[in-house]
Amino acid sequence: MAIVTGGASGIGEATCRRLVAEGATVVIADIDGERAASVAAELGRAASAVQFDAADVTSIESLVLCTIERFGHLDVLHNNAALTSPALHAKDTNAIDIGFDTWDLIFAANVRGYLAGCKYALPTMIRQGSGAIVNTASTGAFSGDITRMAYTVSKAAIIGLTRQIATHHGKQGIRCNAVAPGLVMSPGARAAVPDVIQVMQRHLLTPEIGEPDDLAALVCFLASEEARYINGQTYIADGGMLAHNPAMA
Ligand code: NAD
């Protein structure tokens, strides 16, 4: 039984598709309830959709607790939803110009939202003696990003959150790891950074830009028993972008 937030599009959607193909039951949780329902309908009886808002802790509490009540257990939580709208992106500028309302909103969804998912999932996972949490961070957490301020800092916070959950709850059977995508051709990325896609492609150490399923494969591995000796880690999947200095390419 898995909950995937931001499951109606991109990396989250690809993860839902993979989890179902691997035999899991999935709750596709997204602010876009219609799109989540349409993905769930395509995936059949193993999937259902729940509308929620990652910036609203009450809606996260209800998502997690209602799922546990319905299924009786929770094996996997993929905290993946993040605010990616181009309108918000345009306000997420730099330390001088950014409004505190923009900062707070981005942190509410991208950081507090992930914490809330963990907060409400952990008691059940601890009772079970097992549970895997996979958080979606970003390579921006490692390199800085001239185009986005709060988003980049929020993704660095996710790496700290991931270590903290593993540190506090690893002995209770909880594994918490993160994935850090570089550019991945999701609908969100196409809308948010259309102008940098070609530039970035030149600097990859792979022939092609990554697809959402490249990340879904990593998420599903980290969520699986095959990753039972991995905890508190962050895995970069970025086509090698951070492995070299683009200025020397
Ligand atoms: P996407 O836009 O394709 O999908 C994101 C999904 O999250 C959408 O279905 C959207 O409706 C949902 N969502 C947005 N705000 C929400 C909210 N407040 N509550 C609930 N759901 C909400 O994006 P993606 O590229 O697949 O991004 C998934 C994750 O990967 C995000 O955490 C993003 O920061 C991270 N990421 C993506 C890339 C990339 O290049 N695609 C790179 C680095 C990190």
Model description:
The termini are far apart. Helix 2 (33-43) links the parallel strand 2 and strand 3. The chain is of the alpha/beta class and 249 residues long. It is globular. Strands 3-2-1-4-5-6-7 form a seven-stranded parallel β-sheet, sandwiched between helices. It has helices at 10-21, 33-43, 57-71, 86-91, 100-128, 140-143, 150-169, 187-192, 197-202, 212-223, and strands spanning 2-5, 26-30, 47-51, 76-79, 131-136, 174-181, 234-237. Bound molecules: nicotinamide-adenine-dinucleotide. Nicotinamide-adenine-dinucleotide binds at residues 5-6, 8-12, 30-32, 52-55, 80-84, 109, 136, 138, 181, 183-184, 186-189, 212. Nicotinamide-adenine-dinucleotide (NAD) binds next to helix 1 and helix 8.
